Protein: M20 family metallopeptidase
Amino acid sequence: MSYLRVAPLTAACLAALSMSAFAAPLDAAKVKATVEGQFPAFVQDHKTITEIESPTGDKAGSRKMAEWLKAKFEPLGYTVSFRENDSSTHVIARKKGEGKQRVLILGHTDTVQPVGSLAKQPYSFDAKTGIAKGPGVGDSKASVAQLLHFAESLEKLGYKNYGEMIFYFDGEEEVGSDLEEQLLEELSKQADLTLSVDTSRPDWGLTTQRKWSANYDLKVHGVTGHAGNAPQSSASATVELANQITRIMKLASPLPKDPAQFSAEGLKKRGLSDHGQFIPEVSINFGVIETGNKKRNSVPADALAKFEVRAYDPALMQKIDSAIKKIAATPSVGGTRIELKGPFSTLPAMAKTPQAARMVESYKNIIKQQYGAKVVEWSGGGVTIGNFTSKHIPTIDGLGVETDYEHDLNKETADLKTFAPRTVGMILLLDDIANNGLAAKK
Structure:
């Protein structure tokens, strides 16, 4: 009998194998201990940045947040760069690893609360309940602090099983901008997947899909005249606008006859929990209606409506747009003419692609195994920056510290006791993606 002689593996070969597809998964107990050890520093950093007032458009506050992030990420080995416009500073922190997956991590540094809000609602943290309050405490200062300590935890664990980590801290997420969209386009094309921490819902809520949205302006030109003596030679712009609204609204999904049943109180009475499942598939809102006419006895010669359309299914965008244009091209009041502008400010849907679905299932399994908890998937009618990246790469949202009553200065809270389990889940998800190629097309 003969034997095949095999040369022993060199140290270099072993090192290469250790960071290959056969890399050993992270030890969950070690991850938990590492992240939990970050908690006191996380709370202090959260307080520090909540007390940096940085409402959207405040250049000084945005720059101060950017400098704080730069000072924190550079010692961790990240290359930090700024991209600025007249109102904000956007931060990009990058670091090369030894694996394959290029991971884009999204957060934002701006808030909706104006400068001076801190004096009205000072930062507070209740160590017993874990609840923090303050301007922008949840949306999104808690997530910014979390992402710093997510990065610090990876360093303490010696974790390098990624091709590149790219953190993007948006300076004007609340209102958007051309620079923001440009950066999201650039960065998503340089990455394989997106993990976003914005506005995480309570009780392990995870947002897996969001609607697309499109804006329109509809202007009706009529013929004025005296309402008593000349209705026969006039053409009412407001009547035609009402007709247009009625016809366009038929494109939307039906709404309940009693909206009170779907308020927070109404759902509670019915024993139901809201995680976005009651949001209609297609929603249309006429937010602004105007006319230059100020007299009751004059037939209006002009009328304007500004409206938006939102839906989950990206395939519906073209269909609804075509229907709106057809309605606008066929006015029912003789003598009126319609000028339709749009769609503009069009935002893509955040779709739950097959790759995103695999990541979601992985996250659910991790949380069940490590914390015995059930992750609830949320649908969002609102838009976040994750909508933009999902055009190019699988994206899941809501991985951050859990937040409630965002945008309400008096009621907004961040549940800081969710920092450790949420961050542990995010790290173990990242590791599972790296080892099993969950974000790859199959």
About this structure: The chain has 13 helices and 16 strands. The chain has two domains: 28-210+349-436, 213-256+273-345. Residues 1-21 have pLDDT under 50 and may be disordered.
